[in-house]
Amino acid sequence: MFRRARVLLCDDDDAQRVVTEVFGILYDRPERYLKHPALSVQLYALTTRACFDHLRSRALHSRSKWQAASVPQDDLSARASQLREVLDGLSEPLAQLAVYYYLDELSQEEVGAVLGCPKRRVVSLLSQLMAAAGSRELQS
Amino acid sequence: MSLPERTRPPGCITDLMFDAWFADELPAELGPALDKHVSTCQRCRGRRAALAVERSAFLSLHPSYVASPRQLARRHRRTVLAAVALSSAALLTLVVLAREPGLETLPPAAAETELGFAVVHSGSNERGMRGQDVHPGDEVRFDYSVQTPAYLAIYGLDAHGSVRVFYPETELAAPVAAGTHVALMSTVAVDNVLGQQWVFALFCNAAFPVVEPQRTLEIQRALAPSPGCDMSLTDWDNVRF
């Protein structure tokens, strides 16, 4: 959870805040999450959504909601930084897909499990994402 | 402004799968296949080690979650409301739920294993308690409890941050039989480093090189059990006479 938050938010303090929030959700609703057979997938999705919420609130104070709080330190953070430029302006489902597929490099089946949709839906969303990213690339 | 390239080679393990593996959430039949892949894939071996180090680091910084007073109050409120709804047994239910049995006390991570010790001092043998005082020159004899046969290694982390392998003396963790309070034959001499001494016992279902967790301890000053392992912890305080 912390790893997920840290890569997306590029800020250890913010990442800790998000993890605490997610623990809070788990604490408040243990019956909903803790008995799930694939708890890792649940936590992954929950933390990613919490990061997106956090980024939205960060947007209130900055020009771009994907703006990094610090300079990337490693390869993964550099990839996150590259992705961040594409994410700005994408719809949230496409932005989440981009994170799962291009940053976390999950398989299409895993993306489906995290998003709670079948693989064919993932394939369809991926083509939408590539089209959106392609048109933005042309514009830039 | 393009999407980053996917660099994970086909067939390699994703972080999500590593997490599920660490959490014992994968079907049992997948374990051997993943083990086999990791043993032959440098990228996944490195990634697994890196994730283990990250996990240990996080656990050492945040060993448990502490609920805020607001959360405690909210949970309590929900409990009381539920009790009221069960009006036929209102009084009994309210009493039981108000105590919230087990809600705040999660079972310990290594509930199935236990590490104990006895202090041998001037010929007498005294059962050790966590945090108890020992003195330089005393000898400590460890005992363990485990429900199934396992491979065991015991490490000490002293107040200066130095790590010692207390058991075994071999390169690989030693096989031990199942049992309760089984005393080890060997004893450990308490050294002159004063202060708190943490002792980590790692029980695994397969043999492992003793040196790997030792390195993790040296770097992170904490250990987190990998899949197939349990850990028990004890400590004593080394003080002068």
Main beta sheet strand tally, sense and closure of chain A: none
Structural class of chain B: alpha+beta
Mean pLDDT across all amino acids of chain A: 79
The SSE order of chain A reads HHHHHHHH
Unreliable residue runs of chain A: none
Reported by name, the CATH topology of chain A is Butyryl-CoA Dehydrogenase, subunit A, domain 3
User: CATH homologous superfamily of chain A, by name?
Assistant: PhyR, sigma-like (SL) domain
CATH architecture of chain A: Up-down Bundle
Largest interface: A-B, 37 and 25 residues
Q: What share of the residues of chain A does DSSP label as strand, in percent?
A: under 5%
Can you characterise this structure?
- The complex is a heterodimer of chains A (140) and B (241).
- Chain A is an all-alpha fold and 140 residues long.
- Chain A has one domain (2-139): Up-down Bundle (Butyryl-CoA Dehydrogenase, subunit A, domain 3), CATH 1.20.140.
- Chain A is built from 8 helices and no strands.
- In chain A, α1 (2-9) crosses α2 and α6 packs across α8.
- The model of chain A has no long low-confidence stretch (mean pLDDT 79).
- In chain B, 32% of the residues lie in helices and 28% in strands.
- Chain B contains 6 helices and 11 strands.
- In chain B, α2 crosses α3 (42-61) and α4 packs antiparallel against α5 (90-99).
- By secondary structure, chain B is of the alpha+beta class.
- Chain B is globular.
- The longest helix of chain B is centred in the first third of the chain and has 20 residues, at 42-61.
- Chain B has 3 domains: 15-61, no CATH class; 69-99; 113-238, S-adenosyl-L-methionine-dependent methyltransferases.
- The A-B interface holds A 2-3, 16, 19-20, 23-24, 27-28, 37-41, 43-44, 79, 82-83, 85-86, 98, 101-107, 110, 114, 129-130, 133, 136-137, 140 and B 1-4, 6-8, 14-17, 19-20, 23, 25, 51, 54, 58, 62, 65, 67-68, 71, 74-75.
